Amino acid sequence: MDRPPEDRTGATAVAERRTARDSDFAAYLAARQPSLLRTAYLLTGNRHDAEDLVQTAFAKLYLSWDKVRDRGSIDGYVRRILVNEHNSLWRRAWKRREHAADDVVLHALEEPHHDLADDGVGSALWDVVQTLPRRARAVVVLRYYEELSEAETAAVLGISVGTVKSQTSRALAALRERAPQTLNPRTSEEDDPS
Amino acid sequence: MTAEDLLTRTLLEVVETTDYPTTSTAEVLNRSRTIRRQHRRTTLLVAAAAVLALGGVSAAVVLDRHGSANLGPSSKPNPAAKLPDIPQGAAPKVGILYGDVYLTPQGERITSPAFRHAAAAAPTTGGVLVVSQSNWRHPRNDVSLVSDGATTPLGCGLPGFAMGPGDPVYWLFDDGCGDATSTGHLVEGTKTLAAAQGAPFPVATLDSGVVVNGPAWLPDPQKHPGSVRTLGRAAALVIAPDGTARRIPHLATAQTATRAGDLVAGLNQIDTSAVVVDASTGAVRWRAAAWTLSHFSASGQYVSGTQSVGPQTSPGVGDVVGIFDSASGRLVRSVVLPDMVVKSQAVWEGDDAVLVVAQDAAHQESILRIGVDGSVTRATKVLPPTEVRQYGFRLAATP
User: How far apart are CA B137 and CA A32, in angstroms?
Assistant: First the structure.
């Protein structure tokens, strides 16, 4: 039996709303994915984990898409999901899992080779950044790549501004300690007796 | 330049010199559906537990009444969230590794230091073939033969074997274990199957040859001696016993194949989603977009897979093990392992059950058996976190 006309209209309206929502979301995904992948890469250090992280962040964003009324705040919202997912306890366990054998090969083949156009300073520094604890690394990425303020970084990570300051300070100290030539070029020159 | 400026410049350069994969909207929507499904299951379980606690009503009844419509093929209640609470079943019928021990499918216990960091081990002519991984920063894979308590190094290769009715097939580099290795050969037992450049990774043996993942540059006998044929950077190939190779169309990588060689599971070249294809034409038989396919069962009737749900931050959410009908792609069984991470592929015991290495929220570890009938039992004892860090279970080879 056919549905009453008003029901059909209602169903059509729901379908249209869903289509509009998905189209809206797809447009946002296409626009913001490259940028978010870059941030995720800096947080995870490899493309596969970055892709996984971004996919999860966008999936969770999609589930909340209708609740995010202020479209201007979406960037901050999805960035917060991304960082928090990365910092979550289970994700840490997740990343310790064994890679499938062909994943290992693919990973070795596809891992980008960083040939930074400098004297190796950037490469050495990036090596050190990758050894920072997750929270400290997130602070470094948000402060020095995303160039967020201390307050914005605190909001994304859900911590106080004071904690951001101390984490930043500790991260920089660790970087100076482990890559002194890199982060203290002026000091090195001044110390040079010649 | 200040330290902060240098840091910013470094991070910018790192991201600018990296290529990124693209995630499609479909993949994102698939994952969101998986997450939502997991949350719903959790809600159902919590509701069932609450009813049980308050009214003494059987949780199973609640699950049947409300769960059957939503849970699909996973009509049984989810297993316990803690490994010690899962009932102990029979020992594994496939080889497993634990510390220095290789436990054969027949239950024989062989001890060697070569097994400590082994990625794979399998019986072969004259002993047990093992590939051990060392030096995580510059990984190398030492292939050895363990026999009568002695370990004989064979060379460096890749971290896995292709298993078939005969000896395992593996790759050996010709020029040692350094970074500059570029040529080598595929070996079955002690017999060289084919020489090649690159590092083709063998994943399955068929009646008609060996399925490998590229890159590979193989000798081209149709041209003059010494000429090679480039077969692509990321390609799934079948290398025939005479050394000739053919590409499996449309596959970026192969994961497994039926023994008869008619079906191959792997990643689609276009969108890298999991697919099962016709081995000769590459025609896609079916897709399992949100899944990672592992292996075909002994007869080829089923193919196993696992599903990652991303971060397991909610109670009850966990990885999923799935069993598909190979011919149609119908999901015959899916079992959620609440609060657990699956750390291995799903390896078959015949056609009846798959084994996975699972870790629970307390970081305890065990090998679980998931039956086609949905039953879940432990195939090993439970390792406490301290032993997991030191030893850890590994499924020795993937039949």
Answer: 33
- Could you give the CA distance from residue B376 to residue A171 in angstroms, rounded to a whole number? 46
- Give A144→chain B minimum CA distance, Å: 5
Residues of chain B contacting residue A188, judged by C-beta atoms under 8 Å apart: none
The model's confidence at residue B128, banded by pLDDT at 50, 70 and 90, is very high
Residue A90 has its nearest CB partner, among B21, B255, B312, at: B312
Calculate the CA B332 to chain-centre distance: 19
Distance from CA of B55 to the nearest CA of A (A): 33
Read off the pLDDT of residues B101-121 as tens digits, 9 standing for 90 and up: 999 988 899 999 889 888 889
What is the residue-wise DSSP string for B1-49? --HHHHHHHHHHHHHHT-------HHHHHHHHHHHHHHHHHHHHHHHHH
Give me the residue from B159, B254, B313 closest to A104, CB to CB. B159
Number of H helices, E strands in chain A: 11, 0
Question: Looking at the complex, does the CB of residue A65 fall below 8 Å from at least one CB of chain B?
Answer: no
ipTM entry: 0.74
A14-26: burial string, b at 16+ Cβ within 10 Å, e else: eeeeeeeeeeebb
**Alpha-carbon span B393 to B399, nearest angstrom:** 17
Read off the pLDDT of residues A47-63 as tens digits, 9 standing for 90 and up: 777 888 898 899 988 88
3-state secondary structure of B119: strand
Look-up of token digits 């016709």: B278
